Amino acid sequence: MPRTFDTTALRRPVGDPEVRAYRRQLAGRGTATWGSPVPTRRILAWVAVVVGLPVAGGQVAVNRFGAPFEGAAAVSVLIFLVGLVGGLVVLHASGTVGLEPWREQLRCREFAAANELECAARTDAANYPGIVFKAGYRRLTEQRIWSTSGPYFEVGLHRYESGHDQQEQQYEWRYLAFPLPGVLPYLMLNARLDETLPGDLGEFGAADRIQTLDGVMDEHFTLYCRPEDRFDAFYVFTPDVMALLIDHARDLDVEVAADWLFFYSRFRLQVSDPDTWARVAVLEEKVVPLISARSRSHRSRDVK
């Protein structure tokens, strides 16, 4: 029987008082929330501006305009107060915005409980064989929701950083993971819709591993695999599988890594979006069984 998800909890209005009470409850346990990490660099930059500008302003008043010491001090104090008040106003204005990660977490915890799923706000990096889980450094996986009954799956958000010094960047990949019953050669389908975006999954693929899927399939996905695995790619991504992927996942990247099947997106597959769970149900019902059957029969061929 196809899995269905009750997304009522994801749709219900959640007021600020309820979110604050939930935040206090978890804060007492030391439980982390999810969302973007604290912007430490921005805070340090604001502190530097609040401290540095008054000093610089005072020096300019003395050196350029010949202001007396008392006048320079007044200018410095004025600049300091403006910077301090401006920062506090911004901080106060962002108070409601700061509740959003907690609001989302509250909804998702209720959703998980209603559907017999488990939920984790933040964990160590997920130990999956997928390519994004091995990339970069300072890896972190959060917003994880996974099944505890029936066929296993997991939806989450994986972060990592790459580059050095001024070129350092943080990347986020939302993912959907399904285990397979057998091991398959490494295969990757890069969605053509996202190929022009920075950090596109195709950046992981070597140019000499691009293979054609033939016909209309090449309009939607770019296939990456070793030349010697091209036959296996056609064995796994048969026309019926590709038709389903085009219908239900043409905006997602697809990866087969060992005995796992992954779907990735930079901006979709958000755990708090009811549409994500409709997609999970469709992929689990229509696509995963076909690729699972290919992995099972591929293992049988290898045994022979």
Automatic annotation (TrEMBL):
Domain of life the protein comes from: Bacteria
Assigned keywords, A-Z: Membrane, Transmembrane, Transmembrane helix
Ranges that cross the membrane: 43-62, 74-99
Protein name as annotated: DUF3137 domain-containing protein
Organism: Microlunatus parietis
